[in-house]
Write a structure and sequence with these properties.
Shape of chain A: globular
Strand content of chain A: 35-45%
Order of helices and strands of chain A: EEEEEEEEEEE
Radius of gyration of chain A: 14 Å
Shape of chain B: globular
Helix content of chain A: under 10%
Structural class of chain B: mainly beta
Strand content of chain B: 35-45%
Number of helices of chain A: 0
Oligomer: heterodimer
Radius of gyration of chain B: 13 Å
Chain lengths: ~120, ~110
């Protein structure tokens, strides 16, 4: 089993920047997609962005392109999601998830515990 | 608007069989495997079915998945109160695409 450990809850003001993290296992990190999924209060799962750490190829949902940046540091098996200017509408739980060869190696097989981001003035 | 289409709600009584549908297109379900996730309030999603019908270790065989063309379905037999949760389908479409989720109520 792969444990994804996310950074803790954040409370920010509109306009502030933020970078949240997700630490994975080194054995598979570089070889499988890892990404971020947003869940707004009472709503469903929304895919935001994924990255293939081995070559840093990234893909963004059109809904989030230009609003967030996904990155990965293979030396510490950690993926990141960052905002340069938060809005109140970014308030949500953010899950990281990773694919795994046991489950086909493309879609999420393991999920982090989630990180609550609250943006309020 | 989600790429994959699921009914927003489903329900059944204990012991019944319930089926949740997931509709997509050739570029996702029609060409790639379907995945199903279960999510309880306040917790992270959990993989329930992968590669159309495969169950990860620990998932009861009451849960089964199937796929035909550009549609897929999740069936739960012998419904239990603890199955009350949200269920999401997903597939690859040059990225991760999800359904809008189905809230299952056990009456």
């Amino acid at each position: 089993e792969v444990q994804l450990v996310q950074s803790g809850p954040e409370v920010k003001k509109p306009g502030e920047s933020l970078k949240i993290s997700c630490k994975s296992a080194p054995d598979y990190f570089s070889r499988y997609w890892i990404g971020w999924v947003r869940q707004m209060p009472g709503k469903g799962l929304e895919w935001m962005a994924i990255i293939y750490p081995g070559d840093s190829e990234s893909k963004y949902s059109p809904s989030f392109q230009g609003r967030v940046t996904i990155s990965a540091d293979t030396s510490i098996s950690t993926a990141y999601l960052q905002w340069s200017s938060l809005r109140a509408s970014d308030t949500a739980i953010y899950y990281c998830a990773t694919s795994h060869p046991t489950f086909g190696g493309v879609m999420p097989g393991y999920w982090g515990q989630g990180a609550l981001v609250t943006v309020s003035s | 608007q989600s790429v994959l289409t699921q009914p927003p709600s489903a329900s059944g009584t204990p012991g019944q069989r319930v089926t949740i549908s997931c509709s997509g297109s050739h570029s996702n379900i029609g060409s790639h495997h379907v995945y199903w996730y279960q999510q309880f309030p306040g917790t992270a999603p959990k993989l329930l079915i992968h590669s159309d019908y495969q169950r990860p270790s620990g998932v009861p065989d009451r849960f089964s998945g199937s796929k035909s063309g550009t549609s897929a379905s999740l069936s739960i037999s012998g419904l239990r109160s603890e199955d009350e949760a949200h269920y999401y389908c997903a597939a690859w479409d040059d990225s991760w695409v999800f359904g809008g989720g189905t809230e299952l109520t056990v009456l």
